[in-house]
Design goal:
40% of the residues lie in helices and 22% in strands. The protein is α/β, with parallel strands linked by helices and 194 residues long. The chain has a single domain, classed as Vaccinia Virus protein VP39 (Rossmann fold, 3-Layer(aba) Sandwich). A seven-stranded mixed sheet has the order 3-2-1-4-5-7-6, with helices on both faces. Strand 4, helix 7 and strand 5 form a beta-alpha-beta unit. It is globular, with a radius of gyration of 15 Å. The protein binds S-adenosylmethionine.
């Protein structure tokens, strides 16, 4: 990723630290760890939450083919502009993930097979974590996959702990990957099955 993209990302962080929740985009190594866990062959509908400048999106797009319906949801208009410029064929909705059910209706989709999330969960208060997880649960099919990352530095924080407990309430299986040290800050991924 070019230096200008890091600078753009950092500027967005400075304007909205709680919504962005990260000073730099995810590394390729972290993105691959998330995307490789998804069972692409058996899925058709995949949604990305909080696509940012496209660090995860570029790896998702490498796995998407004509059988998939893939769309991204991003709330920040500057990032949406970046995504549209970087990936002209990407379907991206400038909206909040809390409206995912309505966006699925627009996409003529009844349920979602997998969600790949870049949302900064540990930066959200409990009510927001619940709101977004409930919105996802309403569209994710039974057996559906959900993956997201968390910074190891956030695991000790109350919001990070709360999020882990909430995952266990929403999913039948929750597991954690090894730490990806080549990411700033180092992070692990949650891998959840509904
Ligand atoms: C930590 S950044 C991750 C960006 C990118 N996916 C990555 O991994 O580098 C979090 C992203 O979530 C977006 N976001 C935060 N709240 C959101 C919401 N309610 N709905 C959609 N996107 C949201 C932010 O604008 C930001 O782009």
């Amino acid at each position: 990723m070019a230096l200008t993209e890091y600078t753009h990302f950092f500027k967005q962080f400075l304007t909205q630290p709680n919504a962005i929740g990260a000073v730099a985009p995810s590394s390729s190594r972290l993105a691959r760890r998330m995307v490789d866990w998804i069972e692409w062959e058996s899925h058709s509908v995949v949604v990305e939450f909080g696509a940012g400048s496209g660090a995860l999106t570029s790896h998702i797009l490498e796995r998407v083919n004509h059988r998939h319906n893939f769309f991204a949801i991003e709330i920040n208009p500057n990032f949406v502009a970046t995504l549209r410029e970087r990936f002209p064929d990407l379907k991206v909705h400038e909206d909040s993930v809390e409206n995912v059910a309505e966006l699925c209706r627009k996409e003529n989709v009844e349920s979602v097979d997998a969600v790949v999330s870049g949302l900064p969960w540990a930066a959200f208060p409990g009510e927001l974590q619940d709101k977004f997880l409930d919105a996802m649960s309403a569209v994710l099919k039974p057996g559906g996959q959900f993956t997201t990352f968390a910074y190891i530095s956030g695991l000790a924080l109350p919001a990070g702990q709360r999020f882990r407990k909430r995952l266990k309430n929403h999913f039948s299986e929750v597991s954690q990957s090894r730490v990806t040290w080549r990411n700033f800050p180092p992070a692990f991924t949650y891998q959840c099955i509904k």
